[in-house]
Amino acid sequence: MGRFQGLVGIVLILGIAYLCSNNRKKINFRLVFSGMALQVVIALLVFKVPPVTLFFQWLGRGMGKIEQFAHQGASFVYGGIGVFTPDGKVDNYGTAASGFVFAFNVTATIVLVCALVAIFYHFGVMQRVVAVIARAMNWVMRVSGAEALSNVASAFVGQVEAQVMIRPYLKGMTNSELLASMSGSLACIAGGILVVYANMGAQAGMDLAPKLITASLMAAPGALVIAKIVFPETEVSQTMGRVKLEVKSNYTNVIDAISHGAGDGFKIAMNVIAMLIGFLAVIALLNYVLLWIGHRFNPGFDLSLNYIFGNLFYPMAWSMGVPQQDVHSVATLLGEKLTINEFVAFRDLTTHIQPVVTERGLLIVSIAICGFANFSSVGMQIGGIGEIAPERKADLAKLGLKALLCGTLASYLSATIAGILL
Where is the Concentrative nucleoside transporter N-terminal domain positioned along the sequence (predicted)? Predict the structure, then answer.
């Protein structure tokens, strides 16, 4: 039954994209089907081929190690602060290996991962890995080099950093390419944030790491599939058929790379914390108002955002193949991720505020909410890319909501395919 529901979901997702297309006659169906086939291959490799499965599980354990290393740095800075351990006792954060404070642990993890990414970028490792994968995707899907590079880079670095890698091409990119690049950045998730989510799951006894890595990899071709349905290419791309990436590092040496990476990571972490404080406070206010409104009509009617999301996204959650007992929780999480942000959704998933009890449900929702596609990210992306390519600000503003739609549908498509194959 779940597989049948998933097929309904694929038809629904592609149907929404088709209805939103600005030129249905120009849709390249070869690109669409080859991109979906690439998503299927990635999912099959990860979930059905034992050596690949073991490799991704190894990567997941590596993410756990990264969090432990980050804690070593944080323990020096925050040592002396008392924290609760899992057994309910209070211990020194600097010496309690199992102590977890969201602001401390998340900040440290993002800072470390950004520093590591900067080191890899300085030595050219990141650029070469991205270029190799982009060439493969360019060959399979026949997309342009610029959009292939941008989408693959988005699976490793942040949404604005991915555009920095194609800075020379931004000025001359077609609007279809620009939408594809924006959509990929919203559908994928940065390495530092991915590690944070994996460790949030580990704290709750969930093995999310392989699922999240798979989600980010599947999102790259998935975003191209949806974007090329919504905005088919009708112009000639300056990078069609070629993938060329500048390998030169902007850092003086490895110390400079670590310094800049750590500094950028701290800015990202502070932005995450500020957004969470702001959004959660506003949610509390809205829920208070909604509860008051609900009680005016019926004293037993507890109206809330979760109630609204659970009903609004119920059809989509069901069609994606989520088992019946998890549909309402998954629908609520989909709504939180789109309208608030993915951090809130992952918090509610891993703390069981919205419990997901089946393996299929956990797989689908983990992939579906693993991305930057939300309203606040659209604003950040328009501002960030606009600074890199000021001459494209008007185009970015026009394409912002389309990119949000494409990024969201791409994540849903990846989740649905993975659910069918489980």
Answer: 8-80
Cβ atoms of 220 and 154 closer than 8 Å: yes
Give me the domain span that covers residue 281: 1-421
- pLDDT (tens digit per residue) in 220-233: 899 999 999 999 98
What are the C-alpha distances in Å from 283 to residues 119, 233, 286, 348, 372? 38, 40, 5, 13, 19
Is residue 240 helix, strand or coil?
A: strand
Backbone angles phi, psi at 240, to 5 degrees: -65, 130
The DSSP result for 142-157, as a single string, is --BHHHHHHHHHHTTS
Helix, strand, or coil here: 175?
helix
- d(Cα 278, Cα 235) in Å, to the nearest integer? 42
Q: How far apart are CA 146 and CA 167, in angstroms?
A: 9
Q: What is the mean pLDDT of the chain?
A: 85
The reported pLDDT for the residue numbered 98 is 59
pLDDT band of residue 314 (cuts 50, 70, 90) is: very high
Amino acid at 320: M
State the total domains in the chain: 1
Q: How far is CA 113 from CA 34, 73, 87, in A?
A: 33, 12, 29
What is d(CA 57, CA 27) in angstroms, rounded to the nearest whole number? 38
Note the pLDDT of residue 324: 92
State phi, psi for 367 to the nearest 5 degrees: -75, -40
Rounded-to-integer distance, Cα 148 and Cα 157, Å: 14
Residue 247: what residue type? V
Q: What is residue 1's predicted lDDT score, i.e. its pLDDT? A: 61
